[in-house]
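Re: Re: ligand-bound prediction request (bumping)

Still looking for help on this. To restate: I need the protein modeled with zinc ion bound, output as structure tokens. Inputs repeated here so nobody has to scroll up.
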Amino acid sequence: MRLTLRRVGIVLLLTLAVFLSLPAPRTHAASGIVVDEIKHWSNPNYTRIVITTGKKTKYTHRLLKKDPSINVGWRRLYVDIAKARLGPNLPKKIPINDGLLKGARAGQYDKDTVRVVLDIESIEDYKIFALEEPYRIVIDVTGEKGLLIKKTPEPQPVPAPGAEPSLSQQLGLKVKVIVLDPGHGGKDPGAIGRDGLKEKDVTLRLGKMLREKLKTAFDGSVIMTRDTDVFIPLEERTAIANSKDADVFVSIHINASPKRTATGIETYILNISHDQEARRLAARENSTSTRSVSDLEFILNDLIKTAKTNDSSQLASSVNNNLAANLSGKYSGIKSNGVKGAPFYVLVGTKMPSILVEASFISNPTEEKRLQDEKYLQTIVDGIYNGIIEYLKGSKRV
Ligand SMILES: [Zn+2]
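Reply:
Sorry for the wait, this slipped through. Here it is.
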């Protein structure tokens, strides 16, 4: 009897050991992927929807035709997010009503899948891609109306005889909106120099100074993605430029390298890059790993086709050349590292010529010292300004 009981005990213990060693069943609850935010930005030609899940997951999407048989007289685009659950504070319905989309809806499709449905009013095209850390799915929707809406020309004021035409008169009315994007901000300081100078403070100062300079000559609007020390996600900066119908987008940054000797200026457009330095820089500016940069490049081929690559290259050359010339005229040892391509999140999906300027190295002791001097900053601003204006004057002829 005692023997039998002992045997039973051993069997029970073994069973328990086997049970404990089995992996726990994988459910959405275990994955911890929560759809906790859906944001959108829009104008009548463009809507960007951002679904934040925090952790990386798989998703699928499909565009559905109108289905009058179930009383749905409009097209729908749905995104199924795997191994996810709805966040408790996520509204089930998000009205948009911008002419492209009626709104977005989110629901727990089955125990492992969150489905986000966009109810479509009228769209021409859409692009969907993911950005990482935190993981978010971005849907860019463009409108059919976008092809028809043209900026209506208004009568131009005629300059008085003998008077120099204003910059806006020279540029014509084609150029109305310039968006400046001071990199980083708030909880994200960007690169930090040996003296403690923070990239976010330098880029904000440069952005404000450039806005002032542009405003004195340019009648259109100069919009900044931030003009205080605040954190703005990268995809939101792009969305601001697109929803404001910007003609030009300039993201301002200061470079950094583990090599203290690295110096100079360089200007980027969105592209796939085989240059390890450029890829590392993109990872740092994206606040991601280089692995995420590779993931992004995988989908970038498709996105680059729609990007204004030629215009962006011309803008980048104008800005880089003018910046280098301006700085070299006043400071010694200025180096131009040229125009390059790299996969920067902030440039993904922009609808206008867009560049990212690295206007010195904060990690270089000489350049960090210079970046604390107002005159040096003004020289950078004048250089970028000259570059933007040269590009705009040139592009007007096209
Ligand atoms: Zn930066």
